[in-house]
Amino acid sequence: MDTPWTSPFLSRRDMLVGTGSAALGAPLLLGSGAVSAAVPRINFADPAQNLRAFMRLTADLDPAKESTGWFGGHIFAVIDDKPLQMLCGVEGFGIMRVAPQKDGTYRVFNRELAFYKDPKTDEFVDEWTNPLTGEKCEVSPIHNRTVTATVAPVVRQDFDGHMVERPFNPSWTFLDGQVFQVFELHAAFPNPMKMAEWPRESSGPTSRISEIFQRTCRIEDLDNPALTSVPSTGTWTRVGPWLPWMLMGQAPGHILYRTFIKKLGASSKLPPSLLERTKARFPEFLRAPGDDAWGQPNDSSFTVYMQERKPAPPRAPQP
């Protein structure tokens, strides 16, 4: 997210843009009158039908309803040829509202929130000891208040002040009554955290981020026109730079998020511990942004960190 928009989880968090190709095979070209239990009756060669199916899978087409996307898993360090090392857990959600437009496009209004966890106890933490450096770090949760985007045949999304455009052509696969859908982004852009100002937080001059959402649902649900929102589960994978609060600077390597995702209805369906922590610390994140958020700059974990924190002082010499 960063997370996702599942998110709900453009983290963001960051909006994801499909770069795959349509699943191969003639069954995708079934007309609307065809009847088959093996593949959906949706014509995925039609951009409008393809886009509508995707929005129903990831959100809710009813503009009066919000869709909550939960995610939870772990974060690993990837360094040179060493085995991956688990750093911490993560659990959060995105909450999204969709506004269909007259021209067939969709405006997405999303918020993203996630807290980090002790990987051994699964408890939320505010302080974390970096196992790579031994340094105690103040944890900064993901809390991206505004993440908006236009979803269309060409998706336009703001990444830390850099506009990115990608064609919308996600991958769809069908097997044994199930739909398997992949939606991903691979991007590189100038790092908003400059090394001269943020020497201990900045990972370098360039941010390279990949986000991959894999969702699955039932064909009969996707084929049901009465459903403005299709129930789905799946995974979210993110490859990106060290998080600024980890104080890794330009150390070699990067991090990998590996999480499960599940689309929920109301935010009241979130796990109790996550819901309670949200109510206590970020209650406004239990609602999607309003229409007045349109046109505002999108948040990310890096831009929010720069707004709320000051550069960390040099680390004291270790004995």
Strand ordering within the main sheet: 6-3-2-1-13-12-11-10-9
The helix content, as a percent range, equals 10-25%
Low-confidence stretches: 3-36
Helix/strand-derived category reads mainly beta
Distance between the termini: 39 Å
Please tally the helical runs, counting DSSP H or I stretches of 4 or more residues. Answer: 4
Average pLDDT over all residues: 87
Q: What is the N-to-C succession of helices and strands?
A: HEEEEEEEEEEEHEEHH
* DSSP, total strands: 13
Biggest sheet overview:
9 strands, antiparallel
What is the CA-based Rg, rounded?
20 Å
Shape: globular
The amount of beta strand, in percent, is 35-45%
Protein architecture, described:
With 319 residues, the protein is mostly beta strands. The chain is built from 4 helices and 13 strands. Strands 6-3-2-1-13-12-11-10-9 form a 9-stranded antiparallel sheet. The protein has a two-stranded antiparallel sheet with strand order 4-5. Strand 7 and strand 8 form a beta hairpin. The longest helix has 12 residues. It is globular and about 65 Å long. The chain starts with 46 loop residues before the first helix and ends in an 11-residue tail after the last helix. The N terminus is likely disordered.
